[in-house]
Amino acid sequence: MRIGIIGAGQLGQMLGFAAHDLNASCRYIDPSDDPPAAVCGKVIQASYDDPVALVALAETCDVITYEFENVPVTALQHIEGITPIYPPARALQHAQDRLAEKLLFDELEIPLPGYHAVDSREDLDAAAEKLGLPMVVKTRRMGYDGKGQFVVKDIGQLDAAWAALGTQSLVAEQFVPFDYEVSCIGVRRVSGDTAIYPLSRNVHVEGILHSARSPVDAPELTAKASDYMHRLLDHLDYVGVLALELFVVGKDLRANEFAPRVHNSGHWSIEGSETSQFENHLRAILDLPLGSTASKGYAGMVNLIGHISPATRALGVGVLHDYGKTSRPGRKLGHVTVVADSEEQCDALVEIIDKTVTQSRKPGETTT
Ligand code: AMP
């Protein structure tokens, strides 16, 4: 079997490694020169919406998938008739537009922060009036890792928020004073079987995922998140891995967003689960039996952002994944995963990694 992947970054690379274990091969489309996934298979160097490249990929692969959610939907529609494409385009359509995503959460009765669509300066005033402050103003499209966002803390900042983002369609949402953040990763195969991973507890720094730990000892929250995940998977007639990010507020959850792809907050599953999210994504789209999502222990993952220092390489704790990318501030270059026998041990190991990674950051370098 050959899998066509739109995008050849680190997610494509980790999918490629998983494909190898399933005796499948991968072929990619990516505009960059030497992307991380080039070590796993042939890369057609072209833009993601290049019609000639897309047809070439579709005609030479048994199934097509993608590694990031900003693939133009029209690009997928262009090749739909040639080869099956998973996850389905309608999931992508919702995930690409924060307003459509929130309307879907509402329709499926998945709780979420209050929100208000903003297309004019007057709408922004109305949003502040309706939602109260602080509120977070986000671009509807192309936002990721906290980019395209403005936290409005007082009325005096409305002008600045509008000046920063007002050229695009926006959505304002209540600022959630969350206890912590979690993600729920689910997977559904072509024939409809589903599986869900234990929750992951995530820490973001300046909008970028910094670390993730799983499982989370919170049975009530796990049951609620699984219920929401099932609603999404079934409603979208979904195929592949889906990641749902949620805020925890007491015993309740509020949905933030979902990603129709393998997700950074699930990287720990390579070492920490019976079957990784990458293998299960491939199993789902190839309609193979899904593998167990049971944990092998307490897993922790720390992202390596901007720079991988010699001290980090010399750590000798956990498994270091180096995506082979050139250093650049804010760029996800790799991650380290540990698997421990207890939550305490996992926390202690994550702290050691965290300290080494943070202290060895180049002077003046932040995560963004
Ligand atoms: P996003 O790109 O929407 O995932 O936002 C990136 C991060 O910003 C989230 O993981 C949160 O840490 C924070 N954030 C986003 N929206 C909100 C909100 N409504 N209330 C509080 N924090 C938020």
Description:
The chain is of the alpha+beta class and 368 residues long. It folds into three domains: 2-85, Rossmann fold, CATH 3.40.50.20; 114-174, Dna Ligase, domain 1 (2-Layer Sandwich); 180-354, 2-Layer Sandwich (D-amino Acid Aminotransferase, Chain A, domain 1), CATH 3.30.470. Helices cover 32% and strands 28% of the residues. The structure holds adenosine monophosphate.
| Number of helical elements | 12
- Tally of separate domains: 3
Our measurement of the CA-to-CA distance between the termini, rounded to an integer number of angstroms, reads 39 Å
Sheet with most strands? 9 strands, antiparallel
Oligomeric category: single chain
Bound molecules: adenosine monophosphate
Shape: globular
Order of helices and strands: EHEEHEHHHEHEEHEEEEEHEEHHEHEEH
Structural class: alpha+beta
> Quick one: CATH superfamily of the largest domain?
ATP-grasp fold, B domain
CATH architecture descriptor name of the largest domain? 2-Layer Sandwich
Low-confidence stretches: none
User: DSSP strand (E) fraction?
Assistant: 25-35%
Helix content: 25-40%
Strand tally is 17
Q: On the 0-100 scale, what is the average pLDDT?
A: 95
